[in-house]
Amino acid sequence: METMRERFAVVTSELLEQDPRTAVVLADIGTTGFAEVARRHPDRVVNVGIREQLLIGTAAGLALTGMRPIAHTFASFLVERPFEQVKLDLGHQGVGAVLVSALGSYDWPAGGRTHMAPGDVALLDTLPGWTVHVPGHTDEADVLLRHAVADGDANVYVRLSAHQNAAAQPVEPGRFLTVRRGTGAVVLAVGPMLDAVLAATEGLDVTVLYAASVRPFDSAALRAALGSRADVVLVEPYLAGTSNNAAHEALADLPHRVLGLGVPREEHRRYGSMDEHLAAYGLDAAGLRARITGFLR
Amino acid sequence: MTTTEIHSHGFQDLPGLMGLMTGDEKHGPAATSTLDALWVLYDRVLRVTPATVDAPDRDRFLLSKGHGPMAYYAVLAAKGFLPVELLPGFGGYDSPLGHHPDRLLVPGVEIGSGSLGHGLPLAVGSALGLRAQGLTDPAVWTLIGDAEFDEGSNHEALAFAGAAGLDRLHVVAIDNSSATHGWSGGIAARFEAAGWSARTVDGRDHEALFEAFTAPHPGRPHAVVAQVETKN
Fold it and tell me: Min CA distance, A67 vs chain B (Å)?
């Protein structure tokens, strides 16, 4: 299966050809996919070396001159390491960029904690104005990347992952989709969590919503999906509870319950595979089913 | 205030303008380390005016060392970028003039600063952005301090800019020997080692500053280290 990162290089190369405002900024990660377009547009494909503060500062400086920068590296080094640059060079300066990450929370467990950033979306939640896309399939990444680059001068985070669902959903940026309709609780699956959520909720009378965009949070869709009781389960491929506040705000005028499932805060000091980590976090179908049914009992 | 009155301000008026912000009428030029460099840049070097603050081909000046911005505001007021009447409100709730500048509040201010080490990376990106748009003439300047130079982000930026040969990029480093551990061997040596053109001059000597600011540096970015009195 074509990876999201492979498609990212194809889509971004195409956008670089089409739109002279676009530029891509790299920090030695992911440069291979851009080698060809870099030869044609050397001024708009910039590799700053292993310098992540400069990665964001450069993207912001490009934006100050009117360009639409796209910056890419692993989530740990894109959001966590240069977080003050994200806060000040982009947000505080009033300019925008598209930040495209890879590896996310658990994509390369053999790489260990240094290459895991389950807190990335929660960190961006401390800042105003960020749009966050979490595609669950390469074809969704394609749609969301194009939308992000065309999204005016907005600050947009696109969280690419090696974890994918079997089939793409017809995503609309900013909207939750109804994948399965029931009369009871609502289970919101974010990005790559959809297949496991569908398997975990097989035979349960719940509505399954799908979010490939989590910020802004589609409160209207969540409210419209509520059944007889306002019970909501959030299943996110990053830090558990990241969207709890958004769900509570959406349901603030209703008695409601929210269960936030995702990657635990505690460091899981094991190497191994993505599937082993998902199971250890309780994010495989069996683990999800046990916790969802326990909550709804 | 008319344009004629704005442009009547000279270097000798800056202490008075600064006094409007601090309430102290006795400011000598030495009261701030950046005053002379800022004046020479805005008076004789930068091709930007209040009428061209949004022009794509203007020169950019990014004040990275946002601490102690009174000299900056005084120069901007003297050159008509902001009304002198705003100066007494410095730091107030209703004033656009904070103790660190904000580009969204003050016309002509290119970046909001205060946290150190952000100006040079932003200047690198700006130089790349202008070049990518075929704007090869505008100069990009950033002002840093010798203590600010401690921040590692500067070293990410200067190494890359030298290797990339960003010849429209300029740094003025105000050196008042305030870095806690100093810069053994000098600041200019760091830039030169990374492939920059660099000069070290008396930061109070306007002719020396002008000559260093305008020295040719084909194919290389340019740094001017302006030495002033040691911080008290």
Answer: 7
- What is the CATH number for A241? 3.40.50.920
| Residue A144 and residue A12 share a domain | yes
Q: How many structural domains does chain A have?
A: 2
Domain match, A58 and A132 both: yes
Whether B152 and A43 lie within 8 Å, measured CB to CB: no
The pLDDT value given to residue B7: 54
Question: Which pLDDT tens digit goes with each residue over A98-107?
Answer: 999 999 999 9
Q: Which amino acid is at B187?
A: I
> Which DSSP symbol is given to B89?
G
Quick one: tokens of B134?
């075929």
What parts of chain B have a pLDDT lower than 70?
1-7, 25-31, 232
Q: What is the pLDDT of residues B166-193, one digit of tens each?
A: 999 999 999 999 999 999 999 999 999 9
> How far is Cα of residue A115 from the mean position of the Cα atoms in its chain?
16
CATH classification of the domain holding A127:
3.40.50.970
User: What pLDDT does residue B2 have?
Assistant: 46
A134 and A243 assigned to the same domain: no
> Quick one: closest CA in B to A54, which residue?
B121
| Per-residue pLDDT reduced to its tens digit, A12-33 | 999 999 999 999 999 999 999 9
pLDDT value at residue B231: 74
**H helix intervals, A74-233:** 75, 83-85, 120-124, 138-149, 194-200, 219-225
- A157 strand-pairing partners: A99, A132
Q: How far is A5 from chain B (nearest CA, A)?
A: 24
In a domain, A170, yes or no: no
> Can you tell me whether residue A136 is helix, strand or coil?
coil
In this structure, the number of other CB atoms found within 10 A of the CB of residue A220 comes to: 11
Could you tell me which residues of chain A have a Cβ less than 8 Å from any Cβ in chain B?
Answer: 20, 23, 25, 43-44, 46, 48-49, 51, 53-54, 56-67, 69, 84-85, 88-89, 92-94
B128 to A58: CB separation less than 8 angstroms, yes or no? yes
- How far from chain centre, in Å, is Cα A77? 15
Q: Between chains, do A93 and B121 touch, taking CB under 8 Å as contact?
A: no
Taking Cα atoms as reference points, which of A185, A226, A177 lies closest to residue A204? A185
Please calculate the CA angle B40-B100-B187 and round it to the nearest 5 degrees. Answer: 55
A177-221 pLDDT, tens per residue?
999 999 999 999 999 999 999 999 999 999 999 999 999 999 999
The reported pTM is: 0.96
Task: Specify if A165 maps to a domain.
Answer: no
Q: Which residues of A touch B129 (CB under 8 A)?
A: 23, 61-67
pLDDT at A228 (0 to 100): 87
Boundaries of domain holding A58:
4-159
Domains and CATH numbers, chain B: 32-68+98-227 (3.40.50.970)
**Is residue A274 one of the residues assigned to a domain?**
yes
